[in-house]
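Protein modeling request. Please complete all fields; requests missing the sequence field cannot be processed.
Requester role: graduate student
Desired output: 3D structure, token encoding
Chains: 1
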Amino acid sequence: MMDLLLSFLILAGALFTFIGSLGLVRLRDFYTRLHGPTKASTLGVGSLLVASALYFSTRGEGVSLHEVLVTLFLFITAPVSAHLLSKAALHLKLHSLAPLPQGERSEPSGPNRSTVSQNSERDAQ
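Delivered output (125 residues):
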């Protein structure tokens, strides 16, 4: 019975991790790409760590605290780092594919091809 539970946790972890990395590759802008590693991959790695903790706790010398501590660290740091990355992107005014709410429409001021080409033409003169 324990082998079935461990197998399920490992397969679920591998599936979530794969979906998270696939989302990182396939999604089109920074803000949507941020969800891949922070949501799905966190669940995937968390599931793998729970499976590891269960395995070593039942086969070893008691409760395996290493995996529990790594899991806690993962679930605490992943949302914080995602929040900091998104705040930095907002500060840099990166372009998003999602429409802005009414009353907050502004032109994207982040670097894009036309701005870079205009700056390089101005510098060349």
